Amino acid sequence: MAPELKDVPESWPVVDSVDHYRTEWVMALRYDELHRPGDDETFGRLVLEHPGAVIVLAVDEQDRAFCLWQYRHPAQRRFVELPAGLLDADGEAPEDTARRELREEAGLEADDWTALGTTWSSPGISAEVMHLFLARGIRTVTDDFERTHEEADMTAAWVPVDDLRAAVLAGRVADGPLVQTLLLADAKGLL
After folding, report:
1. pTM for this entry
2. Which of the four pLDDT bands, split at 50, 70 and 90, describes residue 21?
3. Which domains occur in the chain, in start order?
């Protein structure tokens, strides 16, 4: 018989932990030495500490999704993405972060918010948890957020949801958070 089909919190004993990279920035890299419960043999794992993120699929009344084109240096490519951001404000709930990021990155606000789900980006190395949202009832707002670095070079446009879905299914758009958010909203019958 298979175990229950659900993820469960669990923590194995860590016998040593060494920081490989840690600054005042919100992410860090550490090396943990751990062992399975009931087994004294230790083994090492790198862990990317990450505060988590939000991703927002903003869909207007014409069934268009707000998309961003942004360069990502680690992958050395410009991705089609959705507004997103880090959970880097102490005590800020994921939906509040999503509202802030939509305002900052897109100059938009939404009246209707649907939490689509929570996913882990790459749990074999990263502690990043992503909170995925669908936003509707969209309106433009003025925001004086100053974009720097890659964000200063972003391009933004409204894209028909059908075109975005086709691009995802054809593999032309491959940003994981966008793919997950779009397909989850679609699978739930919300698009």
Report:
1. 0.91
2. very high
3. 14-49 (no CATH), 53-187 (3.90.79.10)
